[in-house]
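ok so i was messing around last nite and threw this chain in just to see what happens. nothing serious, just curious
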Amino acid sequence: MASNTAPMGNLPSGIGICTSLPDILYLPELVFGGLVWILVASTLVVPANPQGWVMFVSVFCFVVTFIWMVMFACGGHQNKPSWAAADFVYHGIAALFYLSASVALARVTLEMKDGNVFLNYQLDISAVVFSYVATLLYFVHAILSAVRWKSF
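result:
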């Protein structure tokens, strides 16, 4: 019986990244990371420093994940174990970055709760939720990438 998914020891390329774990998580990571980026960019930036970190993390992870996905889709990895290790390392770092950004954004949002700008508060709540979802996606991707790397 043929399967559409690549074995855990192989790195997929082309359309295979849309049918195999953990690579199928690229698109949700881009969607939720982009939503965090858009929602934080559309709110009042007070205080600037924590939300600046959130913007850096969301933009950095969005761009690098997009480049990483294109690299895998074009087959630039040549199915080498070093790419599997790099995939694990990148997604682990991205998960840590997003976790720190999510905590900072949640703290800023809680401090804004007593403010008089209710629309910004709602946008920040949405950004916090999407940020934690992106953190979870990157964490799951890192775990599945570690499993793939070890089975290489």
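not much to say yet. Residues 1-8 have pLDDT under 50 and may be disordered.
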